[in-house]
## 1
Amino acid sequence: MASESRPVIVVGSGLAGLVAATTALRCNAKAVVLLERAAKPGGNSIKASSGINGAPTRFQNQAHIDTTFFSDTIKSAGKRIPPSPPEHIRRKELIKLLTNNSLSAVDFLSDDIGVDLSVVAQLGGHSVARTHRGAGKTPPGADIVTRLLRALQDDSRFQLRTGCEVTRLLSSTQSPRFDDPPGIVGVEVRSGDELTYLSGPVIFATGGFAGDADGLLAKYRPDLAGIPSTNEARPGMHSLLADVGAQLVDMDSVQVHPTGFVDPLSQASPLKFLAAEMLRGEGGILLHNGRRFVNELGTREQALSGSGTYKYS
């Protein structure tokens, strides 16, 4: 069929997009085109500085095999898991999928991509140490993104296009090709003043919308409207999915990181640098008026509300 020769189109070059492109090539895709609207690839994933969670891995203390990743995650999810089926069951199954496959994710990055994940720390919401990072100076996000991208660029079937913004998803009803299957068959792309069309199966991997503080964030979480973020201030792209009939879920489930660095010379800047969770995992404490007020290794929900072992009145 003609459709078999079309490239797999991946939208977004963060960790999800890079892994999707890698997987497509490993599944014998004829070609993969990765589209990124920023001038450089990596998205917000390249800024990640604490590590990746996984269990039970060979880097952990093998004398105490980690069996609590699932239960820790259920506990951290809290009210986001409804009390009754079917949604209760569905969400637990998704968490099981995430935690049960975490070992293979760490092995893939370490063994196949060459990422150093030998240092393991206990961070927020965890009952044991399971957050993996490298022993060197390169933050894990930058190391993972750089190595994945390097491996992709060694494959002649891969093509990266930066400065390309997807402006529309194309459905089969909009396509003149007689052999197009039902569904999404391509994308409309703007690069500068040029508008082009690319045909093929589409994987949308553009991440969240925390940087869209006065747009999607203000719409779905008005209490967080205008909040500073480490993410780039770019509009969320979820409307493109909704325009073709996708159902958006959990848009109000926004997780706010409790710590960030503030430039004293530019305190009002909406773009902040992350004070990584790793700082608390390695012994950093949070003080208010000189007093410790929260358990730094509790969940982020607890940290933001000031609840936990060290709460003071």
Note: Residues 87-100 form the longest helix (14 residues).
## 2
Amino acid sequence: MKNNAVKYTVNLSFEEIKLPPFEEILVLGKHSPHGKQGISRSFDLLIPNGFEIIDTDHDNVDCVFVNKRILTKMPKEKILKILMSNVFPYVSEKEIIKVDFKVKISYNIVEED
């Protein structure tokens, strides 16, 4: 007679998370289940005064939460223009999209006599 013992196989992995679970930009769809006010209050508890809310007039996007560190490097109008052309077309009205937005600043200085 064969023994029908139960055998388990478990694949396990884990990693550290940071709160909030994004660092740079969050794009909020117009009909996201989490509204602008709710997310804003959550951020105020986690990282007080860490993000600026930028409202949009896009069909599917209500607003964008931008880390204030980025705003010290680049004007919000330029950030919004980049997002409008490269991210907003792919956002549905019920989504919340995390955007990794790394800014690198470089200068090319040519000196003349």
Note: The helical segments are 36-46, 68-71, 76-86.
